[in-house]
Design brief:
The chain folds into two domains: 16-173, Beta Polymerase, domain 2; 178-289, Up-down Bundle (Four Helix Bundle (Hemerythrin (Met), subunit A)). Helix content is 49%, strand content 14%. It is built from eleven helices and six strands. Strands 3-4-5-2-1-6 form a six-stranded mixed β-sheet, with helices on both faces. The longest helix has 26 residues, at 177-202. The chain is globular, with a radius of gyration of 22 Å. The relative contact order is 0.10.
């Protein structure tokens, strides 16, 4: 009997990336590729010609792109658009009065592009929930789709309709959204901190480590939020911490706690250390959010 290693099959779409040879060639090109222009976008996506604004965001824009990075494109329209039959597309639902968000997938220069098409009224409705001193408690809870859009609008780069983009970006930064996001993460951190205490008392050290890491991570996200980092993507936490230096936490200490360094050797001590760090960050969040 011979052993054959397991294989991992991935779906790469219907374009040039279907071929492994092409994927490898594109990987090298992406590392040095420039961002597309609005004219480039319209060559690949002519359905977007009537858009009010458009911006790109994600790891490529932030300088964190890698060989397999795709490009996150957001297209802002006044009225709903009709996607041409030849385009690969699907819809997602947002928490807005008009819930439908079209997602169009295609190739844009060297990148695979995911284009989210949002209406102006949808974005204004979401931003409006945080325009007062206190977020609208009657509004639907924001899901990942809406939180991603707000973060990417703030951290992205306009390709078209820059005045609209600048106005909405400013509205988000001057709203209570950052405070809401920080409070959301703070509540999760506090819940895990309660668990840590009980788990350590009962002697379940392995679970205490996992709960302490969750508490630390949520507390870090809360602190980043009050410092203007609205991302909800945890895979970039090290990069985000390096980009947004915090007086309360060094990059080395943050990375050591994120990757659990020392937890296996001393689970109780590590859990207590992570919990203390989380508590200290939450105190700062409370002060900054007051």
């Amino acid at each position: 009997m011979t052993f054959e290693p397991p294989s991992l099959e991935l779906r790469f779409g219907s374009g040039v990336e279907v071929s492994e040879e092409n994927r490898r060639a594109l990987a090298g090109e992406r590392m040095s590729a420039e961002l597309p222009t609005w004219a480039d976008v319209l060559k690949y996506f002519p359905d977007f010609s009537g858009a009010t604004s458009a911006f790109v965001a994600g790891s490529v824009v932030l300088g964190w792109g890698h060989a397999a990075s795709d490009l996150d494109l957001y297209v802002i329209v006044d009225d709903p658009i009709t996607v041409s039959p030849g385009q690969e597309a699907f819809t997602r639902d947002a928490s807005t009065a008009d819930p439908t968000i079209n997602i169009v997938i295609g190739e844009l220069s060297q990148y695979r592009a995911d284009a989210e098409v949002w209406r102006i009224v949808q974005i204004d409705e979401i931003i409006g929930r945080f325009s007062g001193e206190i977020p609208d408690q009657e509004a639907p809870e924001l899901g990942k789709l809406e939180q991603d859009m707000l973060y990417r609008l703030v951290s992205g780069q306009a390709l078209h309709g820059r005045p609209w983009w600048e106005e909405r970006r400013s509205a988000i930064l001057n709203s209570r959204y950052g405070a809401w996001l920080a409070e959301n993460r703070k509540l999760s951190a506090e819940s895990y901190l309660e668990d840590v205490g009980g788990l350590l008392q009962s002697g379940d050290l392995e679970t205490a480590v996992l709960a302490a890491r969750e508490a630390f991570t949520f507390a870090l996200e809360a602190l980043l939020a009050v410092n203007g980092d609205f991302s909800i993507n945890r895979k970039w936490l090290y990069r985000r911490l390096a980009t947004t230096p915090l007086r309360e936490l060094s990059l080395d200490e943050g990375w050591a706690l994120l990757n659990g360094k020392g937890a296996a050797e001393d689970p109780r001590g590590w859990s207590e250390r992570a919990a203390r760090s989380a508590q200290q960050m939450l105190l700062v969040v409370e002060e900054r959010s007051a």
